[in-house]
Every structure is written in C-alpha cells, then in structure tokens.
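Why does this matter for the project? Reviewers at the last site visit asked to see concrete outputs rather than summary tables. In response, this paragraph embeds two records directly. Each consists of the residue sequence and, immediately after it, the corresponding structure tokens. Nothing has been edited or filtered.
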Amino acid sequence: MRLWSHADFPFPLPAGHRYPLGKYRLLRDGIVNDGTVRAADVQTPEAISWDALGTVHEAAFLERMRDGTLDRRESRVLGLPWSPELVERARRGTQGTLHAARDALDGQRVGLMLGGGTHHAGRASARGYCLFNDLAVTTALLRTEGRVQRVLVVDCDVHQGDGTAELLGPDPDAYTLSVQCERNYPFTRIPSDLDVELPAGTGDERYLSALADGLQVAARAFGAPDLVLYLAGADPWEGDGLGRLALSFDGLRARDALVLDHALQGLDAPVVVTLAGGYPPDVRDGVRINRQTVREAIARARTDLTLPPPRATS
C-alpha cells in the first residue's frame, strides 16, 4: 500500500507549543520499523502549486500566506508562527492528500495521508493550525481531472470542520458530515450538511451509535458518492488535551472500522484517510491512535497493485 508523509518537513515552533510536530516522524518511522509497511511504501509529496491552491482559496489570501504578510489577527487565529518552512509543509500536506485520493481511485480503494485533514482553513483565512483546506482542494482538482463529482466528507475530528463547511457546504455535489464535541472550538460554527453535536464525556458506546446514525442519515440524504474523505482525528480520545469526548483506544479503533466499512461496503466508494487533530500530553499516545488507524486502513486496502507514478499538480 502506498502512503504519503510530510514528516521530513518540520517548521520552527516556540518551546512548549501544543502542536504535536514530532508525532509525524514518530508515526512514519514506527509503522516502518514494526513492519506494518515498507520504507519504500511511504512517499514524500511535492509541494502543491499555488495555482492549484487558487482553485479554492482567495488570491489575496494566498499572496499573504506566500509572503508572510499575515496581519496580527490572522496570525493569532492560525495559531502557528508563520515561516517559509510552515508554508512548504502545508503545501506538501495538501498534495499528499490529493495523491492519496488518486491512489484510492486508481484501485487501491483506500488512500492514506499521514497528516492532512486541515478542516479549519477557509477560502480567505487560515484557522486552528490549518493553512490550506486539503479536502476542498482535493475535491476541486479531482473534478477538474474528471475523476469524481460527488464527494462525502466524514469528519471525526473532535472539532467541527468549519472551513470545510464554508467551502463545500453550498456545493450540491458535496456532503459534509461532522461529528464533534459541543461547546468546543470553533465557538462560531459554519453549519455542515449534518453536524452531530455530542456532550463532553460521551464515551465509546454513545459515540459509535451517534456516528452510525449520522452515516445512515448522510447516505439517505446524499446517496452513494464517488469518493469519501475521512478525517480520523485522534482528539476524541479520553486523554486528549483539547478533546473531552472520552473515547478509549478501542473505541477509536472501532470508529475507524465503522467509517471504513461503511464507505467501502455500504457505499461501495473508495476512501481517503487523513489524520486531522490530536493533542495528548504524551505524544506517544497520539502515535498509538494513528497507528491503529493506519492498520485498519491497510487491512482494507488492495495491496496487490502496481500504482501509477504520482502526478504533479500544475
């Protein structure tokens, strides 16, 4: 199975910052060292072009992001200090999600980006650690290529996908399902097609029941998509610093299995897995959750393929 990672592209962070930058290299190296995948199976995406980002994002916003001329409010809302390295990494992460989608559509059935799920980024704003919205950009570019038309987003990050709702909500050929903790960031919601708001402390049983119901509501309302974009956030975990939904490790594994099986069997649609957020006090717990997701994805992917070489986006 081919996977995509931008782990070799770190960026400067102040000491003690909450963003789990080290997790991505630990995850990539861990799944290679334990034999889950071969080193050659994990590939590094190139940086997506600015023109490709412009299919979704406002030109003036992209210019500010490229040049590092964000104003004080924009920098505060982003939550990360601007640097050329940060922008390079974000561009590579967006391209990685696009490549993972192409892998899924090319017969692998499950594409996997070891990162991504940047669901807070809007048309003209970077928010909540998210510079560019890889989900909306991937949707736009695949449509340009004639690969897909109807796309279902299943967002299981603990935070509502406000940027994705902004960009894809008005689109009749896209459906956004977001399962999140109520009274949590973002505190001003942009409505998804279906928002499932859950109270703090929900736990495994109630969460999985609500997710299953949400998937069925989306299936009845939208039908079968050409592609599913799945955000497998680690932050619903009971020990997460920003979560509060109180899922266990086993509950998160069951969540991944539920979404993947719904997409592949229930909807007969290929699925792209992105990892979205996760902020545990010990980064190793986030790595453990993400490794579970990787294993569930690989268990359902076709690995007997010779995939075509990745295509750069002009």
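We now turn to the second protein, recorded in exactly the same manner.
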Amino acid sequence: MLYWLTGLSDGGDFFNLFRYITFRAGGAFMTALIFGFLFGPPLINVLRRRQGKGQPIRDDGPEGHLAKAGTPTMGGLLIVGALVTSTLLWARLDNPYVWMVLFVTLSFGLIGFADDYAKVSKQNTKGVPGRVRLLLGFLIAGIAAYWATLYHPEELQYRLALPVLKDTLLNMSVLFIPFAMFVIVGAANAVNLTDGLDGLAIMPVMIAGGTLGVIAYAVGRVDFTEYLDVHYVPGTGEILIFTAGLFGGGLGFLWYNAPPAAVFMGDTGSLALGGALGAIAVATKHEIVLGIVGGLFVVEALSVIIQVLYFKRTGKRVFLMAPIHHHYEKKGWAEPTIVIRFWIISLILAIIGLATLKVR
C-alpha cells in the first residue's frame, strides 16, 4: 500500500525510498515486530479467558508435557496477523505472487483455526478429521499451483528447476500441478508435526522463510540471475516483503513462545506458515531447495512416516516416540537442548540451501 507513495516522488526525495524492495522489507519487518509486541499480551489474555483449560495435552505424550496443561493455543493468530498486516502495508498489491502466498497462508490458517477450535471446545486432541484437512489442503494447493504457473514465464511453466545443474529444467507437463500441490501440503503438515516443543517450530520457520526471501529477491532481479546462472522469475522479489513480515512476526511470537511458553502457535500458525513456505518455493521455482532449507521439517515428517509404516509391518517401533523430537525427549534430553540444537541444524541447512544459488 505504501508503495504508491512513490507517485509523490520526484526521484530524489524521501518518498523515492518506497521504490526499493529492501527498504520496504525493513519496514515490513519492523511493522510485524511491533505488531507482535503490542498485540501479544492482549491476545494471550483473551485466548486464556476463552479457552479455559487451554490446549488438550496428549495422555500418551512425554510426561513433562503434562505440566503445560492450561497453556492457550491459537497463538498463530498473532503471527499471521502481523505478517498479513505488514505485507498489505508495504508490498506492491498489484503483484500476483504476493496475493498467491497470502491466499495460501490465510486458507491454511483457517483450516488450522478450525482444528484448534475443535480441540479446545471438545477438550480432546482429535480436532478436524485428517482426511478433511488433507482434502481442503490439496484443494487450496491446487488453486495456488495453477495460480503460480499462470504467471511464470512461458519457458518455466510446468517445469521443475534442478539446483546445482546449470540451465536444467525438467518438463513435467501437467504433472507439475500435483507435484506443486504435494510441496505445499507437505510443507504445511511437516511444520505442523515439528510444532511439538516450546519455540521448536517458529525459529526454523523464520530461518527457512528468511532464506526463501533472499532467494525470491535474487530470482526476481535479472542482474542477479545472470550473475548466479539461475532462472529469472520476474515479480518474485516482492515476496521478500512477506518473508520480512514473517520474520518480524515470528520474533514477536517467540517472545511469548520461549520456554516456558505463554502460548502455543497451534495448527492455526503451523499450517499457515508451512503452507506459506511451500507456496514461496513454488512461486520461485525452488521446490527442491525447500527440501534442503526445510530439511528439519522433512526429517520430522519422515520420522512419523517411518514409525507408522514399520509399526504396522512389524509391531515394533524405530523411535522411542515420533516425531523425532519426542524420541530425544524420551532419551532424556532437556527440552531447551533439543530446541536449540534443532535451531542450529536449521541454520546449517539454510546456508547449504543458499549455496545452491552459486554452485553451478
């Protein structure tokens, strides 16, 4: 919205700053951060009053989690509110990729909100049936995948870009749409599975989001893409505004989610943020790089899949408990130790993901 102030500029005054994506990204970050600090306490108080007993705690989970009973959930409203407000304020609203990512974020956030509401109101851990969630998720992802493909340059449409390999595009034809749908839904559910300890999910989401924001800015500039030998996707640079808002909103939320958490993000936040990461990867043609940058989420999801399949086949478990962060809890690791070490792993993976921009 503030971008239109450039119409007041003669090219050499303050309003000219609004032409620059980097300046507006900084504004989006600060807006989202201040939003989180201002609205965090009143939102938590409202959630605490409305929810009473807070998020239901699984009886079969780690024993230490029983002490978290009464902690309110749906804290994802704070993050989503911060990043949507900052994006609408600072991004160019004529950019189709911005609206596509916002559409996925809000839609998955609504699914998560319905799930959280069902859990809190019924005081059980079941929520919305998994099949319903997946069906709605794939429907939203299908719309987003087609949306992104519609605005991709013709030479990139329905094609998968392979990292490291220079000028290599895999023509998937119509199969690209279901592939992109899987990326978005998979990212949403992988982040959802990771959100099991205080502060565990939000920092890796911020790291992955920040990394994808840098990638979006790079592939949206023709001079950068020529230097880096990556595919040029005009318009994606504006996604940096969204990821800056995500980072600022995430920090604001982490202030209250740091151990011991005053609020959980819930499915409202985890599904929305995971879906957003997947949507950004599809928009920027970096779907495979998302698997590297978000490698922690991949491992968390795989640990659940392996556990379920192996147990059905043998009646035995590979991990003491899945997702894998609970395995380390069962092994006696302290919660802050698991969280901080997983943050470190996320940062390392993000650096490796960024390196794929240059390694050709």
